[in-house]
Amino acid sequence: MVEHSTTSRSSSAIRVKQTLIMLIGTVLAGVMVVLGLWQMNVFESQQNNSTQARIDQPVITWNKAPKRADVMAQYGRRVRITGTFKPSTSTMVGTSWPVRAVEGMRLTSGETIAVVRGQISKGQEIPSAPSGTVTLTGVLAASESDEHRNPQMPAAVLPSLRLEVLTQTWPQPLVPATLTLIEQDARAQGLSPAQPVLPKGDGGERNRGYALQWWVFAIFTIAMSIAFTRAAGKHKD
């Protein structure tokens, strides 16, 4: 009877120990998951602040398109251009509605730049671009990466704004950049403003790696907790 009571108390103590091991492991893993999410949120916040800070810098006025290297150095900045829209270049870009309305503008210096005038919803017609010489301001961006075409979208809608595609039919020379109009200029043309597609800042992969590292630690902690719990049970046997 005494031996049975002792064995029962021993089993209860081991179960308590197993429960504590799993509880501590779960709490630690939860903390690591939260730290990973925090790492990602901090990175995204810093990246967004950096992008917005660049957009908020003083507007650059182009009397003519700069050299390619100078254009690339101005990606993410607001640029003011003067020129004439070319209706024959009007196109739509996107993989889902709303899509962006894009049209080429011939600068006074002779180059053509792809201007994202704004965005339109399904069934909405693209308002005609202003005629004659106009001065507009927008955010400068690079040619976009290739995107898979959505089969449910009209064939005339390009999946992404790639200069390599436009250069086949648009007037030359083509400025190695796109310009997304600021809200004021987009609405003045009867369009909703579009968001400029800007490249991710440096360090993106590194910061995502830091976040993933915390989640790997969390999985490892749970696995070790399970292993220790089983070991405690075997010790009872």
UniProtKB/TrEMBL annotation:
Top-rank lineage group of the source organism: Bacteria
Membrane protein topology class: Multi-pass membrane protein
GO CC annotations on file: plasma membrane
Transmembrane intervals: 20-40, 214-233
Stored InterPro entries: Surf1/Shy1
Keyword annotations from UniProtKB, A to Z: Cell membrane, Membrane, Transmembrane, Transmembrane helix
Family membership noted in the UniProt record: Belongs to the SURF1 family.
Name of the protein described by the UniProt record: SURF1-like protein
Record lineage: Bacteria, Bacillati, Actinomycetota, Actinomycetes, Propionibacteriales
